[in-house]
Hints:
Number of domains: 2
Number of helices: 7
Keywords: Receptor
Domain TonB-dependent receptor plug: 143-242
Distance between the termini: 125 Å
Radius of gyration: 34 Å
Helix content: under 10%
Structural class: mainly beta
Protein name: TonB-dependent receptor
CATH architecture of the largest domain: Beta Barrel
CATH class of the largest domain: Mainly Beta
Amino acid sequence: MKSLRVVRPSYPYNYLSLWAMKELMYRIWIGLLLLCLTVGGAWSQQRIKVYGYVIDREDKPIELASVKVAGKAIGTATNLKGAYSLALTPTTDSIALEFSCIGYRSVTKSFPKGITQDLRLNVTLPDASTELSTVVVAAPSKKQQNMSTIAAENIRVAVGPSTGVESLVGTYAGVTQNNELSAQYSVRGGNYDENMVYVNGIEIPRPLLVRTAQQEGLSFVHPEMTQAVNFSAGGYTAEYGDKMSSVLDIRYKTPKEFEGSVEVGLQGDQVYIGSRGKKLSQITGLRFKDGRTLLGSLDTKGEYEPLYFDAQSYIVGRLNDRWSLSFLGNVSLTHYQFKPQTRETSFGTLSDIKKLKVYFEGQERDRFVSLFGAFSATYTPSSEQRHVVSVHFYNSREMETYDIDGSYFLDNAKEGDSKQPNVSDNLSALATGTNMEHARNRLRYTLATLSYSNLLQLKQGHLLKGGLSARLEDVNDFISEWTRRDSAGYNVPHHSDRIEMLHNLYSQNHLRSYRLSAYLVDQFSLELPQGELSLYPGIRASYWGFNKEFIASPRFVAAFTPTRQKALTLRFATGLYYQAPFYKEIRTSQRDQENNNIVVLNKQIRSQGSLHVLLGGDYNFQLDGRNFRFTTELYYKYLYHLNPYRVDNVKVRYLGTNTGSGYVAGIDLKLFGQFVPDVDSWLTASLLTSKQRIPGIGEMPLPNAPSYNVSLFFQDYFPGYKRIRLSLRGVLSGGLPQFRPTEEFLPPAFIGSSYKRVDLGLIYRFFDRSTDTVRAKSSFWKLFSAVDLSLECFNLLDNTNVSGFYWVTDAFHQQFAVPNYLTRRQLNARLRIDF
């Protein structure tokens, strides 16, 4: 048997094939290497970035500002610290980057030779309020949607007896101020209780017992400490509290270096000091106001001794990059003492002029002391998060005491008649009598609040805000007041068997309650082909333990800027807004067996409600090379569960029950711009109609709803010589309903006269370190940065405005409404030194 032999096949090209395979692998590796180098180069080009910060003129970060390549759909947004990073492909072609945030002027950075490597680029956006307008429709940023802004430099030149932020707010569209002695204002038909004031995110309480503007004292907001002012006349987002009319949001400044100012004047003085260290900064302000000169122009003559004092401080400590602590403290003192002597008032028509003469005995002594303190801790773990915990405390001690007897004589005025009335005059007088007023009123209340708020950036251009708060409330109220009138020897009202007071009110109540609230706001922008759409949906909820009421307030705000017409911004806002009651709103009176009015607290009270619908727009344009903005807002507010009230001077007296309903509708117009180059001015006009319906009484207008209002704030300077600057404030407002002084809630007797006032100020800059380079070198002048001398004329046209009426009844039971005139023309001078 033959053995099998395996014959291996012969491959003549074996070695050649092996070499070919090695060659192929070598080429593959070379190809892969080139491919990696190519892809790596391309990848490195894709990772080129432009980065930096977007800030405002105060070096504060602007969160969620838009950063994009002009003409392309490539962009990003800044985070909560204002930082951004934009990925680009390197290019040698011309490229432009657009930085914008509605509420700021847009900035474009052009690069004609392109960008080929990483670039750090910090950009400052000018505030639109100082360049274009005071009405800001903010993209998701610190400047809230549907808010107006006031530039800090305009606050310094405000003119009027009540200077400061409120003086300028009173000239805004939809806002009415009809008492120059008071800082209070009404917005779109509401009263001052319906307005909120925030300072550094904390709502500021106010005294409750104030009856007249003379008792009011200084407002909380210190103008020298203010950095940013935002104001909304309605349609604000859910982060603001449960009130129906407006919100004034104040931010105090953080100084960059040591600064200060001293101001002395005929009607008040103030001192401000600010400093900054590595870890600590502080601002402190003292104010003192003397109202004797101003009150001396009233019809009632006597010894006025008012004292208004205010001291506050804001301290910020930075522990590290993540933690910071702050404290805001305020002490306010108002001491008002008045010994009236005489009053002489003429009123009526040209053909029927009447004169009221009153001779007084007694005095009034009032004292209001309030303490406020707020501690806040801010934790910023990253550029996408911010958490704030605050504890704030407010205590107010209020006392109002007076015993005043006034003998009055009402008669037809005689030409040249200035003598005192005698017995024969009394026989022909229309009305004679004695009015006796007595009060021993005391109120003390304390608020303690713990709150938490956070900001969370979910993604670029998308911000979520939320907050929780719990507040304890303690109020002690003791009221004892009465008015007795003796007319022609008879007590009014007259009863043969007893002496009855014309008016009396007694109260001894103690309220202890708690209040919980929470809110959530979603803020985001959408880049649509048609334009930029900013949306602010949100909801707010609260619970009050006194009446066990829970309310939920959904709110929605939107703004749209068309791509083809970026000078135009359209706005829409709607929502349910509630006026959560506090102590003043829950007080109602009941008559006892002796016919005395006793104050009781109504536990059935509910929050007043309002359904808001607002549609508005801003249009930016240029005229003669200067920037202007025209703003229009249409609004409608359906009011329900109204708590009807009457206004006496500045005191609001509520009925204490939810018996009313009604509506407010109107239109607000505003033209803002540089009427004169380089300075801001504005003109506003408002038309309004309102009705409230009260069962058993009927329809009537709201007490604080004038049918029209026109306001002007105007600045000017001498051409070519800006050292002399003029500031003018003018107001024309329609009359308000006037009610008879009865215990019953009745329709108004008539509509009062219009409020007309013009205040003029002239400011001369005596020294300016930036321009007076020669004097600035001297050892004396180098201590100061600026010195200003101001001359002011209040009520330039000497208009006779009315704050209310004093009602007199004659022997035939005919009532005469004697006007309580406000201040006449006054002069004031101020010297201000900045350092």
